[in-house]
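Shipment paperwork, digital attachment
Item: protein structure file
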Amino acid sequence: MKIILKNGCYILLIAGLTWLSGCRARARLIPPEKPSPPKERLARTGYTVQVGAFSVLDNARRVTQLLSHKGLNTYYFRHESGLYKVRFGDFPSNEAARQEAERLFSESVIKDYFIVRPEDYAASKQSMFGEDYLRDKLVATTQSFIGVEYSWGGTSRDDGFDCSGLTMAVYQLNGLNLPRSSKEQYDAGKSVARNQLKKGDLVFFVTSQRQKISHVGIYVGSEEFIHAPGKDKKIRKDSLADNYFKNRFAGACTYLR
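Attachment content:
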């Protein structure tokens, strides 16, 4: 416990929480310092199965929900053609991906499918083209989601399910496996100062009453980030300088350095 007198306000620090008295301010979470040991690089995405070419978003969402309920890691995205497509799984081999796809096909869960290979992802080409190449791909992928109504399949009991689903999908579409929840994504990354943010890094916020990390977005440069604001809301771009996000900013992480 520590008490500091500053600008006429008593500040009481207890177990990482800051409480202020004697001035008009509310309690806000002070995120714990990130562990100092360097983090391991994110695992590369294996073989995934892509299904569908939907002109109607709800059809892609319905397939995503159906596959999620079967325990498969599933997400949908807007292809450059303008159609919505669905991907699921992270299989160790082409044969394992094909067997699962054939099983679902035989059960009439999916129709035609396409297997995406690890070498098809931008992450596999980073060694050839450099880190900036991968970062640019992450941003381009994120921008392709703007304006899409986003609601991930399966249950959404924990805060930040939709927003972390977006960041996970963006990274997986480029060949990198992020953990599922915003808190897990925060723990998996290497802490980076706000003034050292690079395109493709993740920014985290405390937006819930439970005073813990509950929201995440992808930094795209110039103090801006893209995020999924919540269930059934459209993905959009916002500024870190906006008072709402500035007051709730909890930290940032990188996964590429």
